[in-house]
Amino acid sequence: MNGNKAAEKTAKPDRIEKPSEVVQPQTKNGNGLIELEQPMNLQLLKRHKKFWRLGSKDYHTEYFDINRDGNLIVKEGNYQYHIKDIVQKFGTSLQILFPFIIKDRLENVIDLFNLLIKYYRYRGKFFYHFPMKVNQNKEVLLSMVSEGANLETASYNELWLVKKLWEQNSFLPSIRVICNGPKTEDYLKLIEELQSKNLNIIPVVEDMSELNFFSKYKGDIGIRVDLDVSVSSHWDKKIDRYGLLADELIKLGKIRNLKMLHYHIGSQIELQEDMIAPVKKCMKLFIEMKKKNPSLDTLDIGGGMPIPYDLKKRFGFEGVARRIIRLLQSMADKAEVPHPNIVCEWGRYVVAPAQITIFRVMGEKDIPRGNARKWQIVDGSFMNDLPDTWTLHQKWHVVPVNHLNFSKRHLVRAWLAGSSCDSDDKYIAHGNYVLLPDLEYLDEGDTQYIAFLCTGAYQDSLSCNHCLLSSPAKIVARNGEVKINIRRQTPEDISKLFGW
Predict the structure, then answer these.
(1) According to the model, what pLDDT value does residue 152 have?
(2) Which uninterrupted H or E stretch holds 417?
(3) Are strands 150-153 and 355-366 parallel, antiparallel or unpaired?
(4) Residue 51 · residue 407 · CB < 8 Å
């Protein structure tokens, strides 16, 4: 749990040390730590779950729980994954992907939009497109597609993967592919090739040169607008190099085969109103462009749905989806135009909670001056394995894998240090601290593991090998079984990457 004064003040301290409130007999180990001779009762389990914010939809941890031995578990229906056992089998550093979480979250998004469309008698359709840049791992991509996701690519190489799967008949013929991003010559040629093979592919025009190229394109196209809307998000909108301004699009008049109007306003949008404002502005433009472009029938609202990395409660997607449909319906009816089809690209929202990253704590060092009391050194690298930690100064939901039943006085305010020789290789929770078990209270020979939650978005594709450190091994937990997906890199594997 990320520590700060507010959280420390509001969190209820664990009262495991008061015998009157514990039904099991107690004993002390050699370090003076009060232990239970029997596993925790349900009341204590509930308190610890609340303290670590597990089993909560508000924090996207409804799949996570604590067993009676104080260890982290993940529940998939009637299956149960004991994370400590998995770590001891496969070692650390380690990433665990849970495809069932992807499927569950994607199903929730698609089903809710379709339910609201039916309830409000909205006459457009809903299409979910997964942005491949969020996570290109095969297990993630196939899990998305199997549950009904369409795809969005941002580069030639991503579209090449789509081609490979398409030629293997891994996709239904009805799958839709949106092609965003600047278009290289190879990217443009591949778009044309796949369109000629009857893949439902929609390239999105980013600038005038691309518009000129697609003037003779035989398929449908989209076009991106650079909306003049400011929102609170991880996105610098002062200067945006993507898309065309609204006035430029109106002046273009009729655009051949125009099917879709697209915008992307930001990532990790903080306020619900900031999700709605760009929809309203883009719909005004859609209505204006529809007058000269009868083929225009789809509005792509991009991404932006947030994940509570910082453990602050965010707005839910249910309310956003309802407001989007009602707004588009009202504006379309008033302008007497057909209700537009709706496309969303909420990649991070769906896939981030489906992966966790686990490290072993190798040791502690006292911090003479600082908000934290001790450094805890882990056997991985934040710069390499969780790059958003230092590039975006992102906060994470950090929990122990074991010893989740430690009382609060046996936790320590910790800063985490990675295994590289770089001073930036650290996680200090924006200068606050993380509450974690103090190694001082572990039994001799015991090992502490910690888990970073919601690491399924962007971290793999942005990772590197600074100091020639190995990337974590990647395993997949599905249907009660755990299998290696990508083995841990050896020194020989890494050296080959650098020409040795």
Answers:
(1) 97
(2) strand 411-417
(3) unpaired
(4) no
CB 411 within 8 A of CB 322: no
Place of tokens 């409000």: 120
- Amino acid letter, 398: V
In this structure, are residues 454 and 396 in contact, taking their beta carbons and an 8 Å threshold?
yes
Q: Residue for token digits 């020979």?
A: 445
If asked whether residues 406 and 313 sit together in one domain, one would say: no
Q: Are 137 and 351 in contact (CB under 8 A)?
A: no
Query: So what's the pLDDT on residue 237?
Result: 58
Max Cα–Cα distance, the chain, nearest Å: 80
**pTM of structure:** 0.88
Indicate the burial class of 498 (C-beta count within 10 angstroms; 0-12, 13-18, 19 or more).
Answer: exposed
CB 62 within 8 A of CB 98: no
Q: How far apart (Å, rounded) are the C-alpha atoms in residues 493 and 470?
A: 9
Q: Is residue 429 located within the same domain as residue 329?
A: no
Q: Are residues 182 and 300 in the same domain?
A: yes
The answer to whether the beta carbons of residues 306 and 314 sit under 8 Å apart is yes
Instruction: Please write the tens of the pLDDT for every residue from 218-246.
Output: 999 999 999 888 777 666 556 677 889 99
* DSSP per-residue string spanning 315-381: --HHHHHHHHHHHHHHHHHHHT-PPPEEEE--HHHHHGGGEEEEEEEEEEEE-SSSSSSEEEEESS-
State yes or no: cis peptide before 470, omega within 30 of 0: no
Report which DSSP code applies to 150: E
* Banded pLDDT at 369 (limits 50, 70, 90): confident
Residue 491: domain span: 2-98+356-497
Both 334 and 411 in one domain: the answer is: no
What angle do helix axes 99-119 and 317-335 make, rounded to 10 degrees?
A: 30
Beta bridge partners of residue 223, listed in sequence order: 205, 261
Question: pLDDT (tens digit, 9 = 90+) per residue, 136-168?
Answer: 999 999 999 999 999 999 999 999 999 999 998
Looking at residue 2, its pLDDT comes to 45
pLDDT at position 290 is: 97
pLDDT score for 21 = 31
Under DSSP, the state recorded for 62 is: T
Task: Examine the fold and report which residue of 288, 320, 345 is the final residue of a domain before the chain moves on.
Answer: 345
Residue with the two structure tokens 């369109």:
195
Residue, of 494 and 72, whose pLDDT is higher:
72
- The 10s digit of each residue's pLDDT in 262-295 is 998 888 888 899 999 999 999 999 999 999 999 9
Q: pLDDT at position 238, please?
A: 62
Prior bond to 463 cis, omega within 30? no
10 in a structural domain = yes
Instruction: Please name the residues in contact with 444: beta carbons below 8 A apart, sequence gap of 6 or more.
Output: 30
